[in-house]
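dude i think i finally got it to work??
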Amino acid sequence: MFGENFLKTLGEWAANAGVKLILAIVTFVIGVLLIKLITKLLKKSKMLQKADKTVAKYAVTGIKALLYIILVISVVAILGVPMASMVAVLASCGVAIGLALQGALSNLAGGIMLLIFRPFRVDDLIEASGELGVAKEIGLFYTQLLTLDNRRVLIPNGTMMNANVVNYSAEPLRRVDIDFTTAKSEDPEKIQKILLTVMDHTPHILQDPAPFARLSGGTDQAQKYTIRAWVKSEDYWDVYFNLTEGVTLAFAENDVNAPAFRVIRKKEEKAEEE
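look at this
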């Protein structure tokens, strides 16, 4: 009699558990699909498309994480775990979890602070933690940078908040500064004229403020010239390389001697005399 009751109770429990398990699995699968659908709809929503890219991406990531938390709680509830017991367990484990996740919580707080203070935005060219690249996303815990040589770098948000961040895209204009050296014997007025001519013929250089080219230093064997040109931020590297190439070619065309050239000639002359 006892064995029959036990088997009957066990069968009923197994049936109920099986139904709950199947229902929990179905709920989880449907929930995952719904979350993916909601995420896609959020990304395409007009409200987020009008919002700043940095805020939009962070908001989508945060909402997605919140939906998954709700889904897990729902699945646990379907399995029959009392919510009061689950809350009690979470509360008792809160201190341990907090200590274990100090770094993650610091990164989460760092991401929120990045959104509040906005030291940079998505698609800005920045330098932080020794890395130079375009900010592609500020996630919940990491900021993604795409370097100029196409490497994807993940920097913890907490580190970003405690590091020096250089934003090369924050201002509409930037100044290109390049130094060139010539032999000591070269005429400064001649070199200055060559440099200004090259800048006049280089595209994207702004005339206000006016381009600058002057003798800025030197040694007993060389003269150093500095050129400065204001450009739009997006034209910086094009102008930088065009100026470097243009000045090098102009020096060659005008027979401008480099310091090393004079030293070599002196050595050759001394060798011939001996």
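The two ends are 123 Å apart (CA to CA).
im so relieved honestly
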